[in-house]
């Protein structure tokens, strides 16, 4: 479909756009592409002598990882210019958090990068805990459980990145295998938190509830199975000549370019630079775990793929260590002892999948009027956080994720702003794509692995 902007001499009675002024198109024809309609573009180009064309890929194109719009300027099939258009998924999460209590904020921020919800919750809660001055009071078991859930989440996120990237290249077996393994991780999430995603499980002061019976055995079975399954993905892709031909030398961005644009995560480590916040700026006790930072030396899409696969092996090592520690912390607390912060109280999984402890309900409803009043006030009003601001970055599957939380001394955040790696890393799209072919744009975007929920927030 060819579209033209109406010029000053448009027909009488034409509707005026109240939000976008009209202008005369001086940059040639604009084609809006929805997929599988390249023939119409070819026919349109054949009508004139001009080779240059502007193509809108997305925001609903199946290869743009969500509602990302790519504006591509083409000369033949070569991309001469590429720009990102974002904002199609805007949900106003950061603004909404200003109207909720500090604990309710976890329910909002977990929905941003919806493929890595535990990381959103963790960076936010670490910032709130720094403002409260309770960083050293967090129970050991809560920190270990946070590490466990984040590393399981890293595996599930990388599986989606590899699966969707493979699908966009036409490697459907990679996609089916990737999602098959991800289901196993989501089953663990459901067992431990009651939900498959958007958990709000990590709370200021600790985590919502203890591990249910049998969880450690299920985690052990998962680790053993994944040690057999991950080599299947490697056997399909690592030395596959077609796979390598599509990825090697595509979307190249060297260390200097990554530093200039602020890129972190697998794109940065694929240049050979071992920057991982779990090692360089440890949090949640990561300095006590045995794992290696994974790097590659090609600075291209293939290197980013290899980094993600290798990181999944390292995450399995961390999960194993965390499970071993939890086995020795049976019955230990998972929330700070301060009852003015510890909310909600004594959650446990019941017949409905999740709910309050019957013992706690019996106590506040039948034994202690003060306990009922305290519970009511804590849930409805929330706790106060001393005035100040804090930023605690963590290493998400896509790079540095940080929450800048600001308090004015009240029961709600004055401001919460997230430094999301998907947003920052998308800056590299133009550098990676320009000079390549149309098909290489898809590879470059897949290698960045952006999640638009984190970009638009």
What does this structure look like?
The chain is α+β, with helices and mostly antiparallel strands and 457 residues long. The strands form four sheets. The protein has a five-stranded mixed beta sheet. Strands 10-11-12 form a three-stranded antiparallel beta sheet. Strand 4 and strand 5 form a beta hairpin. Helix 5 packs antiparallel against helix 6, helix 5 runs antiparallel to helix 12 and helix 7 packs antiparallel against helix 12. The longest helix has 30 residues.
Radius of gyration: 25 Å
Low-confidence stretches: 1-15
**How many strands appear in the DSSP assignment?**
12
pLDDT averaged residue by residue:
84
> What is the helix tally?
18
Strand content range: 5-15%
**End-to-end distance:** 32 Å
Shape call? globular
Structural class: alpha+beta
- H/E series: EEHEEEHHHHHEEHHHHHHEEHHEEEHHHH
Biggest sheet layout: 5 strands, mixed
Strand order in the largest sheet? 1-2-3-4-5
Question: What is the helical fraction, as a range of percent?
Answer: 40-55%
